[in-house]
């Protein structure tokens, strides 16, 4: 499929370009490996769930089927998401008629090193050099059974050499010439600076960005708007803050577990929404957001996500934000479960 054209995709509040499903994408970060950092994972998969490769492949296929029938047409994977690319590739092979209607994104630059262990000391390893790119691009092709529509450098940060590596940039330009939309994802408190540096790059291969934006961490918003103005594809990840912006994340029993998330929960109640719907709707309402990824782990969560609504017009959500450095420090400390 030809990747989404951001010039014709504006899912903000009041959009008449389609249903909410057309603005949501399914992210496979939590579906492709046994352990991840999202809240409530044991509850989602079952406390005694079989997390073998075959069991998680079946589960991923079930969620992909549900996403398809609910109208979601953007799917996001990565080399480091365990076997997410392979799970997606086998699902595509089982349903060959669906590929042309989907936009498939994936990422390189991290590799999964967790060895399918819940208790691995290290689950991912990052490297943004030509050697890893040259190895991972063929791996992506094999796993997916063909080229992705969108291919991103995974988690570009200020310390990455990718923006100044001429050999790597030439390789990425080569993929652009083949019709692959090239971009990067961002993480950390300097997301905006990285986006602006890439926007200023001469002869840039980039025309897509995937960044964290949510009620607790909206600091990249202005830079993402500039990327949208440059007609880049803008994808939002972690709209629910890895589960912090869910009922399970905001509360433990009858007491507050997360003050900022609890404040967001109060705002959601005033808006007559669940916290999940409120947070996801806030991301979809951003006029620069082309796709908002849902990290749903179950079919029920997908259906609930599709009930999201933008916050009421004029709602002031700025008081819900944390300092970016505080947010990212807390994210880095999240356990793999």
UniProtKB/TrEMBL annotation:
Top-level taxon of origin: Bacteria
Ranges for domain NADP-dependent oxidoreductase: 58-308
Matches recorded under Pfam families: Aldo_ket_red
InterPro entries according to UniProt: AKR2_Oxidoreductase, NAD(P)_OxRdtase_dom_sf, NADP_OxRdtase_dom
Name by which UniProt lists this protein: Aldo/keto reductase
């Amino acid at each position: 499929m030809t990747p989404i054209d951001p010039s014709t995709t504006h899912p903000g509040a009041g959009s008449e370009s389609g249903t909410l499903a057309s603005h949501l994408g399914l992210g496979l970060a939590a579906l492709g490996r046994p352990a991840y950092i999202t809240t409530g994972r044991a509850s989602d998969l079952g406390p005694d769930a079989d997390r073998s490769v075959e069991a998680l492949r079946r589960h991923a296929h079930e969620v992909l089927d549900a996403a398809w029938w609910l109208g979601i047409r953007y799917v996001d994977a990565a080399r480091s998401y365990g076997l997410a690319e392979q799970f997606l590739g086998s699902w595509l092979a089982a349903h060959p008629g669906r590929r042309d209607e989907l936009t498939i994104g994936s990422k390189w630059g991290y590799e999964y090193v967790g060895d399918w262990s819940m208790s691995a000391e290290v689950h991912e390893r990052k490297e943004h050099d030509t050697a890893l790119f040259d190895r991972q691009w063929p791996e992506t092709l094999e796993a997916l059974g063909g080229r992705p529509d969108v291919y991103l450098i995974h988690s570009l940060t200020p310390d990455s050499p990718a923006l100044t590596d001429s050999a790597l940039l030439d390789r990425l330009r080569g993929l652009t010439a083949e019709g692959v939309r090239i971009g990067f994802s961002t993480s950390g408190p300097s997301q905006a600076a990285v986006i602006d540096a890439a926007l200023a790059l001469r002869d840039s291969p980039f025309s897509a960005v995937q960044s964290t934006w949510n009620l607790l961490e909206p600091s990249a918003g202005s830079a993402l708007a500039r990327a949208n103005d440059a007609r880049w594809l803008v994808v939002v990840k972690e709209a629910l803050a890895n589960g912090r912006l869910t009922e399970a994340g905001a509360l433990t029993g009858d007491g507050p577990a997360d003050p900022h998330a609890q404040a967001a929960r109060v705002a959601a109640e005033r808006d007559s929404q669940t916290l999940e719907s409120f947070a996801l709707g806030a991301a979809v309402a951003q006029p620069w957001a082309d796709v908002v990824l849902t990290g749903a782990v179950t079919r029920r969560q997908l259906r609930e996500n599709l009930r999201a609504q933008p916050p009421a017009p004029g709602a002031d959500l700025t008081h819900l934000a944390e300092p970016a450095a505080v947010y990212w420090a807390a994210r880095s400390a999240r356990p793999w479960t």
